[in-house]
Amino acid sequence: MPQIFEIFHKDICGRIGRLETPHGTIETPTIMPVVNPNIQTIKPSEFREFGAEVIITNSYIIYRKPELRERALSGGLHSLLDFDGPIMTDSGSYQLSVYGQVEVNNTQIVQFQQEIGSDIGVPLDIPTPPDVPFTRAESELEITIERAEEALGLKKDMLLAAPVQGSTFSELRERAARRLSQAGFDVYFDIYPLGAVVPLMESYRYSDLVDVIVASKKGLPPSAPVHLFGAGHPMMFSLAVALGCDLFDSASYALYAKEGRYMTVRGTYHVDKLHYLPCSCPICTSHDAEELIKSENREELLARHNLYATFAEMREVKQAIKEGSLWELVEQRCRAHPRLLDGLKRALSYSEWVEQFEPISKSTFFYSGPESSLRPEVLRYRKKLKNLDLKGRVLIRAQRLDNEYDFDYVLDFKPPFGPYPLELKETYPFNAEVTDEPDYESLTVALQNMLELMELNPEAEFTFVYDGEHPLMEEIARRAKVIGKGREGAHMKV
User: Fold this and answer.
1) I want to staple 210 with a disulfide (CB 3.0 to 4.6 A). Which of 160, 279, 326, 346 is the partner?
2) Domain's final residue, options 311, 326, 354
3) Helix 134-152 and helix 170-181: axis angle, to 10°?
4) What total of structural domains would you count in the chain?
5) Which of 243, 491, 202 is nearest to 350 (CA)?
6) Is residue 361 situated within a structural domain?
7) How far is the C-alpha of 380 from the C-alpha of 375, rounded, in Å?
8) Is residue 488, in this structure, part of any structural domain at all?
9) Which residue, 296, 324, 354, sits at the end of a domain?
């Protein structure tokens, strides 16, 4: 398979990569602002100002309007939109989902995208909405796959995307991804968009969105670039990137502006209710809230702010990937809304799958709350407990003990990991920054790991130094000598 996507940095399933196109290289993860060929709140030539390297437009709208169609065919798509960078074109699937039909077939729209010089084209897939019957989702998926394979036979220089459909059925999403990624022989798909997910995001069904992303990723090669169709709100970028999405697009920046809505990573505000502008972009530093509300150009100013906020967050995500702190950013962002927190918890239910992609070593593990106890690093360590071969007298301590030299082995105890060799104290992830008073969830996982270690080493005699209470302490006391350390430093049996 030709290498058009190269990965340079990774954290969790997120990655910084470079995608080669006929009109230049794109650094991912990135946002593709949606450009309406008929109405442009901001000129495409100005998108570079915000950090945009690539834009997306609708080839079906251009195809249907004779004036736009002729200009695109004669001068090319880039001339029509006045943008010299890569341009992706959608095929009209959105109109198909809204109106039930379009005045073009798959072959016509794929050929048209190539004729106007699109960098990335999309077949006319069937965007099956959430919660439909399985038989409908499966039937429409077959049509999507047939059309994608038909498009492969028409492919020339344009990169070709293969939409992964399947509604809210994980089985169908994974099946579609696997079939599409194996469809080519001498010709291959280049990008894999996850389609029909906008209704999930509009109704804040982030748990279901996580299921869709993970199921699709399971069916794709790890190196395949993934596009999350219609995802343009900055508060969910970190979660989607952490699960392996590389490209995003949305018209939200303009649609929200039209409705007087102001985007932030914590959510969206109605600008009329703002007394202060919580942003340092050029729009917000040159206007106060009252000026922005009363401005004759309010819609354009809001659209510009929304773009600045969108690209600023994506740069934050990239920086987190670089320094290995993406999990911490995800946990912070997902506390912006209860449904996002649901999405994080669902993502953590896939920790065993995520663990295979998680780097072995990176920056300091920061404990951010109960969800941190379920991170892949914790799961990975539990799997490695079997590598600790302990015999004789073993001390596991959360506080130092005076007579530690009497023991054959001394292990530190740190929730959520539990016991680990002292020699690893300064290594990742045991150099974790954790709270002095562990919460119930982290202590539960740590004590479960300790019980697992005892089970794996029946010939060892364990002593546990810990001053605290937990239901699992009763079970531990049956298997080990437990010593509590009082405030005056006196030792006592528990």
Assistant:
1) 346
2) 354
3) 10
4) 2
5) 243
6) no
7) 9
8) no
9) 354
Query: How many residues are recorded in the chain?
Result: 494
490 is in an annotated binding site: no
Within this chain, do residues 180 and 305 fall inside the same structural domain, yes or no? yes
Is there a binding annotation on residue 460? no
pTM exceeding 0.90: yes
Catalytic site positions: 90
pLDDT band at 351 (very low <50, low <70, confident <90, very high): very high
pLDDT tens per residue across span 261-301? 999 999 999 999 999 999 999 999 999 999 999 999 999 99
Arithmetic mean of pLDDT, 80-89 = 97
The verdict on residue 493 lying in a domain is no
Q: Is residue 242 marked as binding?
A: no
**CATH for 331:** 3.20.20.105
Do residues 117 and 206 share a domain? yes
Q: What does the buried/exposed string (b/e) look like for 108-145 if buried means 16 or more CB atoms within 10 Å of the residue's CB?
A: ebbebbbebbbbbbbbbbbbbbbebeeeebbebbeebb
120 three-state secondary structure: strand
What is the extent of the structural domain holding 458?
A: 370-483
Instruction: Provide the strand spans (E) within 297-408.
Output: 392-397
Q: In this structure, are 325 and 447 located in the same domain? A: no
Q: What is the CA radius of gyration of the chain?
A: 27
Tokens of 303: 């659209």
Band of pLDDT at residue 95, cut at 50, 70 and 90 = confident
Give the largest Cα separation in the chain, rounded.
88
Burial profile 237-272: b = 16 or more Cβ within 10 angstroms, e = fewer: bbbbbbbbbbbbbbbbbbbbbeebbbbbbeebbebe
Residue 334 annotated as binding? Answer: no
**125 annotated ligand binder:** yes
**What is the residue-averaged pLDDT of the chain?**
93
